[in-house]
Amino acid sequence: MLLAACASAPKPEPDLVWPLPPETPRIRFVKSLSSAADVRPTSLAARVKAAVIGEEGAASLGKPYAVYADRNGRVLVADSAWRKVLVFDEPGKDFFIVGLEGPGLLMNPRGVTTDADGRIYVSDVTQNRVVVYTPKGEFVLAMGLRGQLDKPVGIAVNDALKRVYVVSTGSGSTQTHKVTVFDTAGALLFEFGGRGMEDGKFNFPTNIAVDASGKVYVMDSFNFRVQIFDAEGKFVSKFGGVGSGFGQFSKPKGIGVDSEGHIYVSDAAFNNVQIFDQEGRLLLFFGGFGNRRGQFWLPAGLSVDGQNRIYVADQYNKRINIYQYLPEAGRAERPADMVVN
To answer: What's the rounded Cα separation, in Å, for the pair 252 and 202?
Structure first.
């Protein structure tokens, strides 16, 4: 009787969407990832055992900071508790850890991304370098000679130009707080930024995203704003400001852009994700504090994949929350057309 009860399929939960009915949904919660068991196949006996006595032996997230979902469906997580990168390969039903030993040893990864060939790029804030691996996690090369990077966090790749953009969050010096651009072979190309409050300057920048057109989006965290640049580092626009109102920031962390140009920003103080248009107008926000489905406890890094799925590192809940943007619902012309929940 117990076996039958444990083996039965769980009752499906209702869709969790934003905004709430009767408004047209724009964001739908999909699921969470928290351990290797979420992607590796398990036998019926193993599932029954886990249901009865609890799961054991599966590598689980400790404190995920950065997340990136690549074109092959893999979800890569820079975990500050593990001090490694954990790779969830659901299509391949595989899980592995990057940066365990050798010349590719990681000490404190804070950013992760991949290129068109599946190579993995990881920024290490302690070693002041970017480490590059094969798609299987084997060491290839390291970027960042002494003095080129200062506490690198955010990282993004422009495949068309074969460039790697790395954010140095800095240590307080006016000579840092910048974006350093390398080619994919590790050669330094140029830098932009520097510490300040003016357009194109930064104050402890953290994360970064590159859209399909090559525009660069930088989370200028202690200036409480998003800055947008062209591929050459020329300032284009900015939006945001400090505060607790709609469209303002308190502890902004992750940033991502979907295929329609919507800009997503996670905020660790608000425990939500805000969505903006290209003019910086707030369209919607979703999430909220808690440990239930779709909620957050100190969200950090954020990534949007080619299918407009949004991945958010939910640090203290030790998981990656996955959402789906619903483009068929249409887009708002003005912020007032979106109902915020």
So the answer is: 14
